[in-house]
Write a sequence for this structure.
């Protein structure tokens, strides 16, 4: 692939073109070809962990399985997004994940599409059921978008889990809850109670700040400080809740208009 | 010897000449194999005793530490250079032997009790010469000691990578220089163009010794051509395969060979910064490497304007914290960057975008170590060793149920049989060969019908195994192949980083199935399910750890399927290993009622009157086998079936 040039290749038997730096997943999306994913999100960098987006690339008689969310096609690649070999990998990935997380409905539905009716592996009775499929979106959004690195992975292999450093309350966490919003399986939660934002799964509590104007808690203190710093906002603006800011803005506009008219 | 920095090849040649003279000085010298393997068997105590007792005893006697010469089954090893005679190898030396060795040396005699071999000449591989120790005739007792060419363990070996291991004091850069060290770097940097070096490495046919077997010259060429000014040279010393210690031995015994290889590589690809990623579990290797780096810096072999060529290069050491996956190149680089050691997809190769997204040329310890030899002796010479597709030699750690355990270095193309039978001396205790596992945990088990296959990258791959980094674990007829597959899979499952689903979840599920089979809970569909899982894991995993993790299962299924079936269908472990499928019983005819087993049994499961045959309570027995070891009358049998039938 030459920089700055499009790469022609074959996608499901039809000619296609990848723009510079474009992955198979992205090209497929432009062509209306659906490739299932579990760890892909446009807000964060590709990770290649769930292996659901695998596709088969062949050159003549040779072929191999690649992850479409990372793989950028080369000229003369012939990519099949739904071959038998691809479907076998996806079916096994889904069966493995579903057996581990039977309560995640999305997995069951997807598994059904790949012909998995019942996982052949039992749930681990020693482990409390959890919904986390370790797609790592929370970790990546915290690091790449929020820039805080408040959570990461602990342990390895089948012991792997999402954790704050040493499992303690994360000092770096600003309580923005981006991790909660991006989580595809509902494994992370937050709750605002008694002036605190509770991040249950992350053992972290962050004090909420009240709006200067209406006195209602609306975001965490660190979050406000962070936004103020990043956007260089006046303190009084940052510490006012969006609703009050709207009201204030409207009033100010009205004042201007009234003055102009008169 | 006080040495000042070297800035020209001529200065190096002069130093080499004087260092060689000192090295070969006709004075007594005692070398103690003090690599980790030697130290583990007591070489430290021998060394202490030698140093204590030599005080002023013999004029000019030097007692030195040296690296591993490979014969681990003979450790602790002490080599004694008898001036004007030969170098005698003493095996299984303890501190009690020290007075005898010293007295014999003082009298110019061999300490016959421990003598196992004789080296007649000191080899200088890089210069293609051998210097005889002998002046005049052999003394009678020296002549009686068999020369290395006649000691079966050494006879078939060819030491290229291990050229200095066991010969030099690894903490002495002068020793290394005496052996021709750094002359290849001097030649490369002052007489050769980078492209010429790359061409030489390509012509030599050298392939990566770390596992992949990728042609080294081609890797270097890609790294050199990759755009950008900054490039890195990396040495992968994160050797983690169970039972494998080739790289450890090379670093402990000959650290400068790796540094010299990296200097040549850095010049060839245009890099000024190198890293050695070595595991923290190798403290002695780290220590020796650190010292060697400092020496090389002091001599000017690392730094600015090396050999006056204008090339600058420095090396730093990074210690790995013990994750097997960090031996994978992208995980290693992530770890070097200070991130979690997890692999990434390699669709863009690390030679183009590796460490800190710069072109990075990563090679294994043994690969770097081979480079100076190729430059010194020429690609043609190197390529004359080995097979069509696999050139040079390969170091293997020959372990398991063989008589002679150790590090062996053989020319590529030697058959597995030659390695195991001729060098390794066959199966211990007169047992039967069953399989050999090559290529580390994700290699495969090769059965006896393929024993005449050569050690060769492509041939081993054809058999479903691989060369890997050089592990060679020999198994006998008392080994259960299902249990072996389970062992390796358990290792890989524990070492999976957990990033991608097939490896994380798939290996755990495969292990569950294997556990079930070994515990007598195997089900009819298990073999098919193992195949199905294997295919998805091989195809779907992110990195080579997952991609090769099913290998031990796949090869044992291929070559030993009847053992799987015996476990599943008959609830029987043919090798009598799987505890759930066997029981221990006392043969009343053989039992003398000595009660040795009664006191040995940790579960108090054995009872019986003195001088009457004893019996084992099957409900208490945990099948640990301690009673079998305790019984002097061979009266305890291992029987098929878990219950008393």
């Amino acid at each position: 692939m030459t920089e700055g040039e499009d790469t022609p290749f074959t996608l499901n038997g039809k000619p296609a073109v990848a723009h510079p730096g474009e992955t198979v997943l992205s090209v497929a999306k432009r062509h209306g070809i659906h490739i299932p994913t579990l760890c892909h999100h446009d807000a964060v960098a590709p990770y290649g962990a769930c292996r659901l987006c695998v596709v088969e690339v062949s050159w003549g008689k040779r072929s191999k399985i690649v992850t479409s969310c990372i793989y950028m096609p080369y000229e003369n690649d012939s990519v099949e997004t739904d071959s038998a070999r691809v479907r076998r990998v996806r079916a096994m990935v889904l069966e493995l994940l579903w057996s581990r997380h039977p309560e995640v409905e999305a997995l069951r539905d997807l598994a059904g599409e790949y012909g998995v009716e019942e996982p052949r592996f039992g749930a681990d009775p020693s482990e409390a059921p959890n919904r986390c499929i370790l797609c790592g979106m929370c970790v990546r959004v915290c690091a790449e978008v929020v820039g805080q690195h408040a959570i990461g992975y602990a342990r390895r292999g089948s012991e792997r889990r999402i954790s704050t450093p040493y499992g303690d309350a994360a000092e770096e966490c600003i309580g923005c809850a981006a991790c909660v919003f991006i989580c595809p399986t509902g494994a992370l939660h937050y709750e605002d109670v008694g002036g605190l934002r509770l991040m249950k799964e992350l053992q972290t509590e962050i004090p909420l700040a009240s709006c200067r104007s209406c006195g209602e808690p609306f975001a965490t203190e660190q979050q406000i400080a962070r936004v103020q710093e990043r956007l260089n906002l006046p303190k009084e603006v940052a510490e006012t809740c969006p609703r009050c800011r709207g009201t204030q803005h409207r009033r100010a506009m009205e004042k201007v208009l009234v003055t102009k008219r008169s | 010897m006080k040495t000042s920095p070297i800035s020209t090849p001529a200065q190096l040649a002069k130093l080499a000449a004087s260092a060689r003279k000192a090295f070969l000085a006709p004075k007594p010298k005692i070398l103690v194999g003090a690599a980790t393997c030697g130290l583990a068997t007591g070489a430290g105590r021998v060394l202490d005793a030698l140093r204590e007792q030599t005080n002023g005893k013999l004029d000019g006697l030097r007692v030195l530490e040296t690296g591993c010469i490979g014969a681990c089954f003979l450790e602790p090893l002490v080599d004694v250079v008898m001036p004007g005679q030969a170098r005698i190898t003493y095996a299984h030396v303890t501190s009690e032997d020290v007075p005898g060795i010293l007295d014999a040396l003082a009298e110019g005699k061999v300490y016959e009790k421990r003598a196992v071999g004789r080296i007649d000449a000191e080899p200088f591989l890089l210069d293609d010469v051998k210097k005889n120790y002998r002046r005049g005739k052999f003394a009678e007792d020296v002549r009686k000691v068999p020369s290395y060419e006649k000691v079966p363990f050494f006879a078939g070996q060819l030491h290229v990578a291990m050229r200095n291991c066991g010969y030099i004091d690894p903490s002495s850069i002068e020793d290394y220089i005496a052996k021709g060290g750094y002359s290849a770097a001097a030649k490369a940097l002052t007489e050769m163009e980078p492209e010429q070096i790359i061409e030489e490495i390509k012509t030599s046919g050298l392939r990566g010794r770390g596992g992949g077997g990728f042609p080294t010259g081609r890797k270097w060429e890609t790294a050199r051509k990759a755009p950008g000014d900054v490039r890195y040279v990396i040495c992968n010393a994160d050797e983690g395969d169970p039972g494998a210690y080739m790289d450890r031995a090379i670093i402990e015994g000959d650290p400068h060979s790796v540094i010299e290889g990296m200097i040549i590589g850095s010049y060839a690809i245009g890099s000024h910064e190198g890293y050695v990623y070595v595991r923290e579990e190798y403290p002695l290797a780290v220590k020796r490497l650190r010292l060697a780096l400092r020496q090389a810096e002091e001599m000017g072999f690392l730094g600015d304007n090396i050999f006056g060529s204008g090339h600058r290069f420095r090396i730093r050491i990074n210690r790995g914290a013990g994750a097997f996956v960090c031996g994978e190149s992208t995980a290693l680089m992530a770890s070097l960057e200070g991130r979690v050691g997890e692999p990434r997809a390699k669709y863009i190769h690390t030679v183009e975008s590796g460490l800190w997204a710069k072109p990075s040329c990563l090679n294994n310890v043994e690969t770097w170590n081979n480079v100076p030899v190729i430059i010194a002796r020429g690609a043609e010479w190197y390529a004359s060793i080995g097979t069509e597709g696999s050139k040079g030699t390969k170091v293997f750690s020959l372990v398991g149920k063989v008589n002679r355990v150790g590090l062996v270095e053989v020319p590529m193309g030697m058959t597995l049989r030659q390695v195991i039978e001729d060098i390794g001396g066959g199966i211990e205790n007169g047992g039967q060969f069953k399989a050999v596992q090559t290529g580390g945990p994700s290699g495969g088990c090769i059965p006896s019908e393929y024993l005449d296959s050569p050690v060769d990258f492509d041939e081993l791959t054809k058999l479903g195994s691989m060369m890997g980094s050089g592990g060679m674990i020999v198994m006998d007829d008392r080994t259960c192949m299902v249990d072996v597959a389970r062992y390796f899979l358990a290792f890989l499952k524990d070492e999976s980083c957990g990033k991608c689903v097939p490896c994380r979840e798939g290996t755990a599920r495969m292990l569950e199935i294997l556990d079930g089979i070994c515990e007598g809970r195997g089900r009819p569909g298990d073999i098919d399910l193992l195949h199905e899982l294997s295919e998805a894991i091989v195809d779907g995993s992110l990195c080579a750890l997952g991609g090769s993790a099913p290998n031990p299962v796949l090869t044992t299924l291929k070559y030993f399927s009847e053992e799987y079936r015996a476990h599943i269908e008959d609830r029987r472990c043919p090798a009598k290993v799987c505890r759930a499928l066997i029981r221990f019983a006392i043969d009343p005819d053989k039992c003398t009622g000595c009660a040795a087993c009664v006191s040995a049994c940790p579960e108090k499961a054995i009872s019986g009157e003195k001088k009457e045959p004893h019996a084992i309570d099957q409900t208490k027995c945990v099948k640990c086998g301690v009673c079998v070891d305790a019984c002097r009358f061979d009266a305890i049998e291992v029987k098929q079936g878990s219950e008393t039938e």
Observations:
- The first strand of chain B starts at residue 29 and ends at 33.
- The two ends of chain B are 75 Å apart (CA to CA).
- DSSP finds 26 helices and 20 strands in chain B.
